[in-house]
Specification:
GO terms for molecular function: diguanylate cyclase activity. This protein is 67% helix and 8% strand. It is of the alpha+beta class and 368 residues long. It is elongated, with a radius of gyration of 36 Å. 31% of the residues are buried. The protein binds guanosine-5'-triphosphate.
């Protein structure tokens, strides 16, 4: 069931949720400002009409911003949090408020501090300076407009002092915004580095470092899962063991780096033939284990033949063109009561049988 909070803020999307929570915080400050202006009306510093106009403008602007955020249209924009737009609107709304007030504007000026505090946390240094200057210009324009229409409502000396005090806040805030921005960037870089380290740790745990296919424990884990699934759902499952023939000789004759290159290339070729649901792992030094979920023996034989051809068709830059790699392939199909090891041992036995028969061939214990 959708919770009442979920109706206001989409909890399933953390980014949108954060944006809307920030917006609601700003909306709360607007609510306080509306209340404060109500006090101005009671004390006779502002007309009721002025309060109504300002309140309507605040509600309209925030209504539009909320609708855009809630509908998700903001995600198509360059600044999806709408920080710039919200701050720009706040400057204009503040100017409108200042225009409606007849005296005691100083108390409302404190609300600019709130705006600048949000700016310090969210903006870059230059953006903050631009916002600060824009706020100053808006304030000056509001005072000029009051002076034109209701000169009795302006004490120019006081207004100029307030403007000067606000102007000193801009560079100070700019400095803090720069500092906070630097911290934010550092935090983001560390977060990225941590993420990469986590991925590397995961790769080290599950991948074979030489060939980058699953390591022995990972492919066995995968097979355990597939055996349990095949037993429960009564689905076919086959495994293929591929053993590179006379690999020791490659190492001895051409050196270990060449042996490594052969293993990497073979793994690449095998990987290229797999379906997304198949599993490929390096089972031992020159042995690869392929797990084929939902595949009966007959289909696995066709696939094994394709793998054998792919491996034997490999060419290696550091080996003579006459060099021909051959591979012995063993096949086994899951039978009721089979465990992981009995299945592997049958496939392995079949690969040994293929090697005993001269290598470069496929054998399946089940079909003998
Ligand atoms: N270059 C390289 N060689 C490896 C690696 N891991 C295992 N080997 C070598 O692979 C060879 C495997 O030898 P065997 O198990 O006797 O297999 P084989 O020489 O292919 O003999 P048959 O399987 O009987 O054809 C050994 O020489 C290992 O040193 C590796 O990561 N890199």
């Amino acid at each position: 069931m959708t919770s009442p909070l979920e109706l206001v803020v989409p909890l399933h999307d953390p980014n949108q949720s954060l944006r809307l929570r920030r917006f609601l915080l700003a909306a709360l400050v607007y609510g306080v400002a509306i209340g404060l202006m109500g006090l101005y009306v009671v004390l006779g510093f502002m007309t009721l009409v002025g309060w109504q106009i300002t309140t309507a403008a605040i509600l309209a602007v925030n209504g539009v911003i909320y609708t855009v955020l809630r509908s998700g249209r903001n995600e198509r924009l360059r600044d999806p949090s709408l920080t710039g737009v919200q701050m720009f609107c706040t400057c204009l709304l503040m100017a409108l408020t200042m225009y409606q007030v007849d005296s005691a504007r100083g108390a409302l000026l404190l609300l600019y501090l709130v705006l600048l505090m949000f700016g310090v946390l969210r903006l870059r240094q230059w953006q903050f300076m631009a916002l600060g200057l824009f706020a100053l210009v808006c304030y000056a324009a509001a005072i000029a407009a009051v002076w034109q229409t209701r000169p009795w409502a302006v004490n120019m000396d006081v207004e100029l002092l307030q403007l000067a005090a606000m102007a000193t806040l801009v560079p100070c805030g700019g400095f803090f915004a720069g500092y906070v921005g630097g911290l934010r960037r550092k935090l983001r870089d560390r977060h990225i580095a941590l993420q990469q380290a986590r991925e590397q740790a995961h790769d080290l745990r599950v991948l074979d470092p030489l060939t980058a296919v699953s390591n022995r424990s990972r492919i066995i884990e995968f097979l355990e899962y597939e055996v349990a699934r095949a037993a429960r759902l009564e689905q076919p499952l086959s495994v293929i063991m591929l053993d590179l023939d006379r690999f020791k000789r490659i190492n001895r004759q051409y050196g270990h780096p060449v042996g490594d290159e052969v293993l990497k290339r073979v793994a690449e070729r095998l990987q290229g033939a797999m379906r997304s649901i198949d599993g490929l792992g390096r089972y031992g030094g020159e042995e690869f284990l392929v797990v084929l979920p939902d595949t009966p023996l007959a289909e696995a034989s066709v696939f094994a033949e394709r793998l054998r051809e792919r491996v034997e068709g490999c060419r290696f830059a550091s080996l003579p063109p006459t060099f021909k790699l051959s591979v012995s392939v063993g096949l086994a199909e899951f039978r009721h009561g089979d465990g992981v090891w009995s299945l592997i041992e049958r496939a392995r036995g079949a690969a040994d049988h293929a090697l005993d028969a001269g290598g470069g061939r496929i054998d399946a214990t089940e079909s003998r």
